[in-house]
Amino acid sequence: MLMRKLVMFLTVLMVWSSYSYAERIKDIANVGGVRSNHLIGYGLVVGLTGSGDKTPFAEQSLLSMLNKFGIHMPAGVKTNAKNIAAVAVHAELPAFAKPGQKIDITVSSLGNAKSLRGGSLILTPLKGVDGNVYALAQGNLVVGGLDASGADGSRITINVPSVGRIPNGAMVERTVNTGFELGNTISLNLKRSDFTTAKNLVNAVNELLGEGTASAIDANTVEVLAPRLPNQRVSFLSILENIEVVPGEGAAKVIVNSRTGTVVIGQNVRVSPAAVTHGGLTVKITETVDVTQANPFANGQTTVTPDSLVSVNELGDGHMFKFPKGVSLDDIVQAVNKVGAAPGDLVAILEALKQSGALKADLMII
User: Fold this and answer.
1) Is the N or the C terminus of the chain less surrounded, counting Cβ atoms within 10 Å?
2) Other CB atoms closer than 10 Å to residue 174's CB: what's the count?
3) Is the pTM of this model over 0.90?
4) Helix, strand, or coil here: 347?
């Protein structure tokens, strides 16, 4: 039953993929320089109900914050605070984000805090890889997890209570220069490098906007002439990103997930002439016990002797099928289905075909 469903799924995939669908440039390529940037910061969450950190760096962070507000603790004195947690704060700064705009942030515990539920993040600077502060984060956490424990040591944890989010929790303070307005060209970087796709993209742009507008630099980058004025460049990109392009077909691949047994066969997979034998054995082991009773007048003891019965049954006759020259995905699936091979057997057959050189595709085990 499982094999039949797998065959139906692969057959439908093959039928769908036999048609060439055009895709918009915005779906297959990114504009060079227009990208998001990662931000990270170290902060302190306060207001927890006894579920906070018991680590030295959380204590040090609290003392440092108090010193900034003019409260100086005597040397060697510990606060033993249980309502604070040292956290890492990270966010993604979108392209063209301007000062005053807000972005979402994620807050994660760095120490042994049991839960961040109910806590508030104190003002935390978020920095980029260059060390500059690009946003300031602060706010009340939204935690989807739950952690509860009893006096007898029983404990229940739901989801992950040590990680929370703050929607619109950071305000942008600095703009990242993308270089979008510089020069008289725009670079389009394909999400999947392919010479055919790059060529088709160039042809589609030149056909609509004029010969020489676009030129391919390599299998990944296409350079397009664009206006210099920002307003005109935005309008130009609005037209450019909606042009439809027929992507090139990918290389022939067979992908096998070794953990789940999932097998995906690309439509361009071909097989050279080959014969495959498929068969199976069932080994059955039955354990029984024999009891030996001694003679009543022999002063002997009753003994128990294990007895094992091993039987081997072959699942039907051995099956052999032959792949003619240049068979397609449909032929492979139908041939394997006729002999009743399970997904595990299909993987073994594909590996054997690859080793013999008959499988004209890359076999990838993930």
Assistant:
1) N
2) 13
3) no
4) helix
